[in-house]
Design brief:
The complex is a heterodimer of chains A (206) and B (212). By secondary structure, chain A is of the alpha+beta class. In chain A, 56% of the residues lie in helices and 14% in strands. Chain A contains seven helices and seven strands. In chain A, helix 4 runs antiparallel to helix 7. Classes of the chains: A alpha+beta (206), B alpha+beta (212).
Chain lengths: 206, 212
């Protein structure tokens, strides 16, 4: 692959990224910003973890998430119900924000990775590949799935004195989803993906 | 790395796309590859950050003083603010959760506002004498920002779980809206701040030191 000149995101220093071996990372010599990490077979691993995360996410949408019992009445909630509960019209904004940051954005992120990987796999690039990759990069900082998990634990401790709470099947599936999402984020590398895109573009144009 | 020279993209009249890392000519408005909006390094870019910071400061007031959550237990309604909730948890001896909520919803937002304000001040007036500190602070701010969302999620989950008809009911308060707005605006402020400004100001000094 041709060496590509890039500037550091944090300090704007121009440099060439050297050829990296497995598990090596390129660090900006001036400010220490991690420019890129290289893993062997990263595209395959990325796709594998993305699909795993997608399967676990669909699983966790289906089954009861939390089961709550107080004085004999039992109530189970699905994942969507546990966030989308602000029935009051004034809280629509908060509801939408929470729903999108915990479910919609991770889902969209994973789906766009699947699309991009699929596009890179074939001989010709599929339409809207750069746009999809750009979308994935732009929504990445708004993914708050792991924060949702922590807040479930916090709210359980808050409510423990009042009632019994059991975890449903979805809860464990959601934990596995978070783990695979973190693995996906580890293999999702801005520089490597755009380099692959440029390589593919050059190949398809002959 | 021996023949390594200090050249920034700015000196070479290039501008890097923040999305796809492609280098574009200085006069381009949009990236050639992915059509993202390009920004050259300019001290005036902090105005956007400052505007968002001011919005966050305004939102900080209702977020902290209005009730976050109201609990109705056997017809008796109690409202609690963020700080009130932390104190209540501390009194109930759940120290870990109290600390987590205290950090996530009070220390992080205020610390983040102060950190970004300090960064903007240094960029505008002082020109960064301690740029490593600035750099670290910026990275920390970017990383930690979204964790303050915990409290809003907790309220949402509690509202969903505790809907026990006449016995007990939890409702969200107005502060939930203000607080989620605060988190969004501080996150946007951190995203709009240009870290290249930290280095731009002391570049000449840096070149001398590296080459000597």
């Amino acid at each position: 692959m041709k060496k590509r000149k890039i500037a550091c995101h944090d300090c704007d220093l121009l440099m060439l990224i050297p050829h990296l071996k497995h598990r090596q990372e390129a660090v900006c010599p001036r400010c220490g910003f991690i420019l890129t990490r290289f893993y062997q077979h990263a595209p395959v691993k990325l796709l594998a973890f993305t699909l795993t995360a997608l399967v676990f996410l669909t699983f966790s949408l289906k089954f009861p998430f939390l089961i709550f019992s107080l004085h004999g009445n039992e109530k189970s909630l699905t994942l969507i119900e546990s966030i989308q509960s602000f029935s009051n019209i004034n809280y629509v904004f908060v509801s939408i924000l929470l729903f999108s940051t915990a479910i919609v954005i991770p889902l969209l992120f994973l789906l766009s990775i699947v699309y991009v990987s699929w596009s890179f796999n074939g001989n010709d690039l599929l339409p809207f590949t750069p746009q999809t990759l750009k979308l994935a990069l732009l929504i990445m900082p708004w993914n708050m799935a792991e924060i949702f998990l922590v807040s479930i634990l916090v709210s359980l401790i808050k409510i423990m004195t009042l009632a019994h709470v059991h975890f449903g099947l979805s809860f464990f599936s959601y934990i596995l989803f978070i783990i695979s999402l973190s693995a996906t984020l580890m293999y999702f590398d801005r520089y490597q993906l755009w380099s692959t895109y440029q390589l593919k573009l050059r190949q398809s144009h002959g | 790395m021996a023949e390594f020279e200090i050249h920034t993209a700015d000196q070479e009249k290039l501008c890097q796309c923040p999305v796809c890392l492609d280098l574009n000519a200085f006069d381009q408005q949009y990236c050639q590859q992915c059509h993202a909006h390009l920004h050259t390094i300019s001290p005036y870019s902090i105005q956007q950050t400052l505007a968002l910071l001011m919005t966050s400061v305004i939102l900080l007031i209702p977020a902290n003083f209005l009730p976050m959550m109201s609990t109705t237990f056997l017809g008796e309604k109690t409202q609690s603010t963020i700080l009130g909730g932390v104190i209540l948890l501390w009194q109930h001896q759940s120290y870990l959760v109290a600390t987590v909520i205290f950090f996530a919803s009070i220390v992080i937002p205020i610390g983040k506002l102060l950190a970004l304000a300090w960064l903007c001040y240094e960029v505008r007036f002082r020109g960064f004498r301690s740029k490593y500190l600035g750099q670290k602070l910026y990275r920390l701010t970017e990383f930690i920002g979204k964790w303050s969302m915990i409290d809003v999620y907790v309220v949402a989950i509690l509202v969903a779980m505790v809907q026990m008809g006449m016995i007990m009911k939890i409702e969200p308060g107005v502060a939930a809206i203000a607080f989620s707005g605060l988190v969004v605006t501080t996150m946007l402020a951190a995203l709009t701040f240009d870290p290249r400004l930290i280095w731009k100001n002391c570049e000449d000094k840096e070149i001398k030191r590296e080459t000597s």
